[in-house]
Specification:
GSDA3 protein; 4 helices; phosphatidylserine binding; mainly alpha; two-stranded antiparallel ribbon; phosphatidylinositol-4,5-bisphosphate binding; phosphatidylinositol-4-phosphate binding; about 100 residues; Gasdermin
């Protein structure tokens, strides 16, 4: 088995801190789990409506795009430059933060 050794960037860590403050980590985790990781980068129209504020949505888009995934306006996700490791790292951190913030 191959070990995933992707790390989050400093920019992603700052966005995660802001996500914690805004209390949207669980929504971000749900988006990454459902529509990126398990959905093989396939989303359905309206997925980004999970966020009640545009600022939360923009923060989430920036966070995910730093992992090499382009989120479309309709909520679908398009991979760029083999993002699996970066998305997996983001998923693990979101999962841990969501668990710890409980």
């Amino acid at each position: 088995t191959q070990f995933i050794s992707a790390e989050l960037t400093e920019d992603q860590l700052l966005l995660l801190l802001e996500s914690l403050e805004r209390k949207i980590v669980s929504q971000q985790l749900n988006l990454v789990r459902t529509h990126i990781t398990l959905g093989s980068f396939q989303g359905e129209a309206g997925d980004m409506v999970l966020f009640s504020q545009e600022e939360d949505q923009m923060l989430t888009i920036a966070l995910v795009e730093l992992s090499g995934v382009q989120l479309q306006e309709n909520g679908s996700a398009v991979p760029r430059d083999k993002p699996f490791e970066a998305v997996a790292a983001l998923f693990v951190v979101l999962y841990a933060l969501n668990f710890l913030s409980g």
